[in-house]
Amino acid sequence: MKIGGSGLQNNGILLHQQVTHWILRKIEDGTWPPHSQIASEPDLAKELGVSRGTLQKAINTLVEERRLYRIRGKGTYVSAKVLEEPLAQNLLSLSEALEVQGLQVATEVIAQKVVFKSPPWVQISLSLEPEEPSLYLQRIKKVVDGPLAVLDNYVRSEMLPGIHHMDFARRRLFDIIERDYGFQILWGTRIFDVSMASAALAKRLAVAKNTPLLYLEQVSYIAGNVPVECSRVWIRPDRMRLKSIITRDHTR
Question: 69, 105, 114, 205: least surrounded by Cβ within 10 Å?
């Protein structure tokens, strides 16, 4: 027996699972395109002929699976394709990780300047003297759906004379360090966290203020354990999630 006019049936499959599949079909066949707002919960429940609780359970499932996302006070929206990147185990730049999947990445440079008084966290990360200069870069990485991430990088500019003149809209930072200056980046550290979007970040990433963002801090090292670059990165979690491949040590 069909329920409502939606094609849902009493067929032994839990009703909220049928609603989940119905919503997924709308997403996958393009009826509900990425970043479109879906109908209100009361309207959808009425259309499907199900209770509000059943509908909420289905929507909550899809939010957890990152197929939908909510903006407080506005409603529920369709997520763009979520990219899975192995940034947790490989020392790849964000652009490199995306291009491994054949994705086109555009870079917008917001700031590019030499600073002579770096923030304390940069001085510690790069082992800089208080007045030692560094190159500060702020860039936005964009994919076909729009802005993906904001990157704040600091680079030891005295080791890399003239780097502040490089075209970072067209070239990757790691490529410039390695190909133009001959320093091989060997290893690094990364710390992952969650950060709420400030007003400035929200504007850069086209999200609402206080939207949760993926956040990472990184320090990259060359031979001799010399730190050459440190960065802070804020990523839209509706467009990208991090994947790590891990193994269990059976020699303990």
Answer: 114
